[in-house]
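Two records follow; treat each independently.
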Amino acid sequence: MPIELGTRTDRPGEAASLDLEELLSTRLLVQGNSGSGKSHLLRRLLEQSARWVQQAIIDPEGDFVSLAERFGHLVVDAAEHTEAGLQAAGERMRAHRVSVVLSLEGLDAENQMRRAASFLNGMFEAPRAHWYPVLVAVDEAQLFAPAAAGEVSDEARRVSLAAMTNLMCRGRKRGLAGVIATQRLAKLAKNVAAEATNFLMGRTFLDIDMARAADLLGMERRQAESFRDLGRGQFVALGPALSRRPMPVRIGTVETESRSAGPALMPFQPGAPDAEMRALILAQPDEPAMRARRPLAPPPPDILQQLAAAGAAQRAVREPEEAARPAQETLEDAFAHRRRVLAVIHAMLADPEAGFRPVPVLFQDFLLRCRIEGMGRDALDLSRFRRALATARSGIDPDRAEGAEWRRAEDIASALPEDVQPVFLLLARAALDGEPCPSDAAIARAFGTHSLGRARRQLQYLEERDLLVLREDGAGRRTVVLIGLGWETAAGDPGAPVAA
């Protein structure tokens, strides 16, 4: 079922269409800086598909409530309902097949995340009998699946991120087709963005964002500059529901209007304020209004802050004692500390979902576990934690990680980007132990993604850097030779699942 998004800019007059049935089996990611036309694109997509498929719209600014007048969407004001009520509404809207706009306007960031998560969880947990197809559009998705911790509580972020992950990773079998729009890919959690197979990339200016957009669309790096020249409402499309090759698109007109119109110049005639206007502007507010606007008392420090204060007091007593210790004893303590750190990270990674969480989230979990183990708050800083995490993701035993051979592998890995280091060390550990070459799924998990294609690209990247050589035998089994170390894995099946 094709729907028309607009026109192709490389072939004037030719329509640019989207296969709606294919979209319901896949997912769509829209990226573009503020003002690039993301919300206009979502509105066009929702208007064109409103007659054919049920829709659920997570609307943080109340931009899409105008769809109700034209297409009969039910507008749910999240501020007027509890989280439990919104979860029930998510289940019922699937049972009765009603398109819904969840308006989160007027709520702070944390309440937006909690209420959106409740509504998404309701749709996700609906009984199997009600798994009808639903197009789930999430505007400003970086608010609900942030890549790094922000000002909201860890619990709210965890709940919201889990709901978005369920939508993008497991929603297809339940009839949920995620359509997410974000200002920057870097702001969006990797395990959410990685599940999209259709892309519409709009105007962007930062070099890192242009490079990532070009990489996702399979374009050469020198073509990345073209994203800077895109006009408002212009996007580059790619994916099974759009086009097999990057296709420049200009989004068509829409039937409804957003309530939050963009800035527009209006006639203004400045002049000296008269006495009446001065009195109006500078009048003292009423006492009830002043009381209502008084700042709230600061919240009490959370448990992490209290632990930090206790840790600082303990360090003040401990540091003079450590300074007087012999050098040999200090070195042995350092090795023992490293083994304990790796043991804590190994225990943390035992959770199947831990490998796909952002590093800052894992770091907070690591610090808390270290305090429980009596290792203090300053077990590692973030940069040293990243290196230790890369080592732990390789699967190396904490005792063997102190060997001279493994240190050579870590030295080579230290020159690589931080997200690639776990992949290289995973291959090094398999070669050191004479094990079969890790599968695409194992490499993807070490890289922190569900995408097997991205995993294979990391192997190509390492081969282009002259760090390894890939070989395949007649049965399609893969072998990796690590050039700088002289180690070689046994032949392994690239399609094998990750071992439990």
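The next record belongs to a different protein.
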Amino acid sequence: MSPETTHDLVARLAARLGPGGLLTEESDIAPFAIDWRRLFPGRPACVARPASTAEVADVVRICREAGAALVPQGGNTGLAGGAVPDASGTQVVLSLMRMNAIRAVDPVGLTLTAEAGCVLKAAQDAAADVNRLLPVSFAAEGSAMVGGVIATNAGGLNVVRYGMTRGNVLGLEVVLGDGTVVDGLRALCKDNAGYDWKQLFIGSEGTLGIVTAAVLRLTARPRHVATALLAVPDPQAALRLFTLAQDELGDAIQAFELISGLSLDLVARHGGLRNPLGPAGWYLLVEAASSLPSLREAAEGVLATALEQGDAVDGVLAESSQQAAGLWALREGITEAEAKEGRGVKHDVSVPITAIPAFLEAAGRALAADLPGARANAFGHMGDGNIHYNVLAAPGQTSEAINQLVHGVVEDFGGSISAEHGIGQYRVTELVRHRRPGEIALARRIKAALDPDGLLNPGKVLAR
């Protein structure tokens, strides 16, 4: 766009959105111009902050008439740079933060309707106020917003029990690339009338349409929680323990986290957090929740069997919610501790659950052979096949070389290069490399049908 066109666009947006609805000063737009990891700096023309679905639709129409690209943004907590503009100075950031209302909570029908800018923690608290649980949960829930959570199909800690965000969305309200509002806010568990179009927008990272509101599924709130940290000899033993836990605890398992010894070493070194168990190559953090009082007895039985069979060499079962929080602090402190250790190249990958031990062994061999000095910091959601196989690089080792090596091993095991964080702009090239041509072609046809002008979050998910 020419400077004149940009000036006219900004004037039209300001007139439509009114005071506080448009940010143009550099100091005001700076927080919206870069991701929280500070890897992808951008420069937007302005930041539009609509306060209603009608205003979102009008912003889309105004930008389309001007030929200006739109970058939808929620809490900007993503890990793939999918919510920040490029450096051209011509793209408009569309922040949903002013659309933050919780429209309805139904504790009997087990649904909650929220606008896209509602912070996830606020939605969780609203569910808790009526003794219900919004099961989508992850570290950034205090700043991530419902629209962004849906647009990225966020995963998190409880996927093993409750599924990804996709499985917890019952209805959507979406603004399309031409400004059309599609209202599908139906609070129905069963709705088989035609195409389930909402699934196109969940996980599309704002490239097909803009989520403005959603109906989310709630569940009963468990009364009892059992949290345990176990030291295990190897990932194969951890896999056997997962089978044991499934047999004895069933769907009460809500988290099953595999953590490398290096991860907890880094947390102790850089976070000052004490590991209550002795040194080990691998650990498991397991949490189960139920409304039945027999949960703790069942969890104790699993721990005793694991120790007896040698699949665990040590373990501790939290005696209080405070102790459970301390165990979770070890897991949640890994990312920050890793950042203090040195340059880490992050991988959010998934493989079939039964292939996790073999994948870890093969990736370790490949690193040692091709990138000597690199250290794997592996941790994550073993219960759903998602491992964060981060690599602490040695001097001279490039992110590109590390990505290609790790993702190549992932492909060998029939896995995915993005389990829960999305593609954004971080993994665009790698997606083309590792997705089959037919899948990429289909994605482009869907994009062309829903965003023929290519103005919704260009350069994200699909290469231009």
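Discussion point: The chain has a mean pLDDT of 95. How would you locate this feature using only the token line?
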